[in-house]
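wait is this the right file?? whatever heres the structure
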C-alpha cells in the first residue's frame, strides 16, 4: 500500500454507458439525454432506476460502479447492480459488490462510493435500495451527482521510477508599472454538492470548511517498460476473429472482449472522454482525468514486450 501521493500499480476506470453514448450506440434506456451517467460534471442530478443493453463481452469480468457526489447516508439508501443473461439463459443476477470505498453508504458516509463486481452478460441494471426497516418512515432519495459504471484496467506492474506528479494552481500573476504584484486565481475544483471532490462526510458529525479541499490540478507523467504483448494489445485487432478461423468463441481476444490496455482503455476514451484514475490500486485516492497527449505510441523493445508513456491530467 502506498500513500503520500505515491504511484504504485495504477488502475483506470472506464465509464461504459458514456462511451457507448459517445459513439452513438443505441441501447436500453434514454442514456443519450440522461446526464447522470456522465462522468462530468459532478453536480446534483435526478436519478432513476436504469437498464442498459451492453454489447456481449464488453463488460468482461473486471467491472465497477462509482456513485459520486451523493447523500446516500442521509437518505439511507444503498446501490445495487443486476446483470442479465450472464449464462445465456436470460436469468438475472444480483451482483456481489466488493467495496473499495464506502461500499454501503447507508451505514457509511455521504460523498462518494466505489465497488467492484464480476460482471459479464449483456444487460446492466443500476438501482438504489431503501434501507429503511419495516414500520419506519420510508427514505427519500436526495442528491446523486454522477453514476459511473463499466470496466477497469489494472496495469500489470508499477511504472518506471522516472515519473512526475505536478500541480497547477490556476493562478496568474502580473506586475503593475508601480511594481506591485497582483494575483488572480482563475479556477478551483468545484464542490460536489456540499462536499469537496473525493471527500467523505458523516451527516451526524458535519465536516465544515469543504472549500479547504485540495485546490490544484494534478498531472501525472508515467512510463511503463516491458509490458507484455497480452497486456498491451488484443490478439486480434478487430471485433471478431473470423478472419483467422471459425470457432465457438469468435469474439475471444478481440477489440471487443480483450482486457489489454489498448482495447480496454485507449480505444474507448482516447483523448476525448474522462475516466477515473487511481494511482495505486491499494490506496483510496482518485482523480477524474483525461489523457493529455495528441496520440499514444508503443515502442517494441523485445519480440513480446512494449513500452509506453502516458500523460494523465486531472479535469472537472
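ok assuming it is, sequence goes like this
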Amino acid at each position: 500500500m502506498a500513500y503520500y501521493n505515491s504511484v504504485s500499480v495504477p488502475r483506470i476506470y472506464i465509464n461504459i454507458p458514456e462511451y457507448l453514448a459517445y459513439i452513438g450506440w443505441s441501447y436500453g434506456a434514454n442514456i443519450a439525454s440522461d446526464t447522470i451517467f456522465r462522468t462530468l460534471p459532478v453536480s446534483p442530478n435526478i436519478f432513476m432506476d436504469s437498464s442498459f443493453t451492453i454489447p456481449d463481452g464488453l463488460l468482461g469480468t473486471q467491472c465497477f460502479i462509482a456513485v459520486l457526489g451523493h447523500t446516500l447516508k442521509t437518505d439511507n439508501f444503498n446501490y445495487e447492480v443486476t446483470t442479465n443473461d450472464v449464462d445465456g439463459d436470460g436469468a438475472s443476477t444480483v451482483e456481489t459488490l466488493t467495496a473499495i470505498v464506502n461500499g454501503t453508504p447507508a451505514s457509511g458516509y455521504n460523498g462518494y462510493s466505489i465497488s467492484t463486481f464480476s460482471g459479464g452478460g449483456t444487460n446492466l441494471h443500476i438501482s438504489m435500495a431503501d434501507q429503511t426497516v419495516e414500520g419506519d418512515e420510508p427514505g427519500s432519495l436526495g442528491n446523486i451527482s454522477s453514476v459511473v459504471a463499466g470496466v477497469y484496467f489494472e496495469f500489470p506492474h508499477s511504472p518506471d521510477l522516472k515519473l512526475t506528479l505536478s500541480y497547477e494552481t490556476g493562478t496568474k500573476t502580473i506586475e503593475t508599472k508601480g511594481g506591485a504584484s497582483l494575483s488572480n486565481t482563475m479556477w478551483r475544483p468545484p464542490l460536489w454538492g456540499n462536499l469537496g471532490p473525493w471527500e467523505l462526510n458523516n451527516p451526524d458529525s458535519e465536516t465544515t470548511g469543504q472549500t479547504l479541499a485540495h485546490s490544484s490540478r494534478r498531472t501525472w507523467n508515467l512510463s511503463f517498460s516491458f509490458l507484455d504483448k497480452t497486456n498491451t494489445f488484443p490478439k486480434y485487432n478487430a471485433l471478431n476473429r473470423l478472419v483467422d478461423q471459425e470457432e465457438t468463441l469468435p469474439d475471444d481476444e478481440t477489440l471487443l472482449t480483450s482486457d489489454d490496455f489498448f482495447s480496454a482503455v485507449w480505444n474507448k476514451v482516447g483523448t476525448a472522454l474522462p475516466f477515473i484514475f487511481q494511482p495505486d490500486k491499494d490506496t483510496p485516492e482518485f482523480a477524474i482525468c483525461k489523457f493529455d497527449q495528441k496520440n499514444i505510441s508503443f515502442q517494441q523493445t523485445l519480440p513480446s514486450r512494449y513500452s509506453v508513456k502516458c500523460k494523465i491530467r486531472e479535469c472537472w
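Helices lie at 16-22, 72-75, 229-232, 261-269. so i think its the right one actually
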